[in-house]
Amino acid sequence: MGGLVMTDPASEEVASNDLFGPTPRERVQRIWSSCWIDYPAASQALKRLEWLYDHPRVHRPPCCLIVGESNHGKTTIARKFKRMHEQTFVDGGTSSKMPVVYAQSPPMADIPGLYSNILRAVGAPTASTASALRKQDQVLNLLTRLGTRVLIIDELHTILDGKKDQKGLFLNVLRHLTNELEISLVGIGTKGVLRVFQTNQEFGNRFTPFTLPRWQVGPEYAKFLANICRHGGLQDVAFIKNKTLVRRIHTLSEGLTGETWEVMCTALERMDETGRMAIDGDTLDEIDWTVPTDRRRQT
Ligand SMILES: Nc1ncnc2c1ncn2[C@@H]1O[C@H](COP(=O)(O)OP(=O)(O)OP(=O)(O)O)[C@@H](O)[C@H]1O
Ligand SMILES: [Mg+2]
């Protein structure tokens, strides 16, 4: 067995204890298992979402656009926020509520596709042949019945592939949903989506952007690395005091959250294979890793 001390796989938050995973396979599963690790930019984003959640009902609800590069923790924040406001049952369990609805944007700014995705997200899939108007009615009725306060639409950059007119119609549908339901809408996407919203003054004003910056090398980044290791079962995180190592991990990941996660998990797996007790330069030398920019260039 290598240097990994396992933590409870069911635990959502980072925790450390002394349970030993009996097999290498289980240890690898533990390393890569999903979890939530808090960090300053994510906390600020959650605070912003919480503010929207608590906002009183108004005719023109405030909305937000979470913008960040690919593989940079956007969806993880949205899902964490949804879990924080998990479905609740009222009226003795007969009526369910879904205060936060999370759905994905369909490709090509397809409006009926958007309604279908929202309906699927609330557990009410509809026939794909149903008219857009019928689906729209269903969405409005259901979200009202479910007491939805915040509607999150992820992967909004997929609208960039749509034709200009279609994009305009799609944005109007988003505005219609937030106005009609008097709920805040949160769009999530990469930088391009910000341009689309900002070319239209009304949308630019309505959807306040929240940008997730790339990580800088510093104590917060080191703490994030340490927490990934603790989640993976490694208690000895002294390597974070080694600035050269931290800077190397930052270079490999290009300061992106998801890439950092993958570098660290790959390194932990390698460390376990070799029986080492800590992350070191040799471990980083031995992992098979291409930096994201080079990876993109190759495809
Ligand atoms: N706060 C976090 N805690 C733990 N792991 C995280 C966190 N944020 C991101 N990750 C890890 O990074 C991976 C990528 O994050 P995520 O899917 O949220 O990025 P994204 O910005 O939505 O990517 P895409 O642009 O591809 O949609 C996640 O699957 C998860 O493993
Ligand atoms: Mg995502």
Secondary structure blueprint with pairings:
Blueprint: H1 24-32, H2 40-54, E1 63-67, H3 74-84, E2 88-90, E3 95-97, E4 100-104, H4 111-121, H5 132-145, E5 150-154, H6 164-181, E6 184-189, H7 191-199, H8 201-206, E7 207-211, H9 219-232, H10 243-253, H11 257-274, H12 281-286, H13 292-298
Parallel strand pairs: 1-6, 1-7, 4-5, 5-6
Antiparallel strand pairs: 2-3
The structure holds adenosine-5'-triphosphate and magnesium ion.
What do these coordinates show?
With 299 residues, this protein is α/β, with parallel strands linked by helices. It has two domains: 24-35 and 215-292; 40-211, 3-Layer(aba) Sandwich (Rossmann fold), CATH 3.40.50. It is 50% helix and 11% strand. A five-stranded parallel β-sheet has the order 4-5-6-1-7, sandwiched between helices. A two-stranded antiparallel sheet has the order 2-3. Helix 2 crosses helix 3 and helix 10 (243-253) packs across helix 11 (257-274). It is elongated, with a radius of gyration of 22 Å. Magnesium ion is lined by residues 74-75, 154.
Present as ligands are: adenosine-5'-triphosphate, magnesium ion
CATH fold group of the largest domain? Rossmann fold
Order of helices and strands: HHEHEEEHHEHEHHEHHHHH
- The residue-averaged pLDDT reads 90
| Poorly predicted ranges | 6-12, 14-20
In what order do the strands lie side by side in the largest sheet? 4-5-6-1-7
| Total number of helices | 13
Choose one word for the global shape.
elongated
Q: Ends: how far apart?
A: 37 Å
Radius of gyration: 22 Å
Which architecture of the largest domain does the CATH hierarchy give at level 2? 3-Layer(aba) Sandwich
Biggest sheet descriptor:
5 strands, parallel
Structural class: alpha/beta
Give the helix level as a range of percent: 40-55%
- Number of extended strands: 7
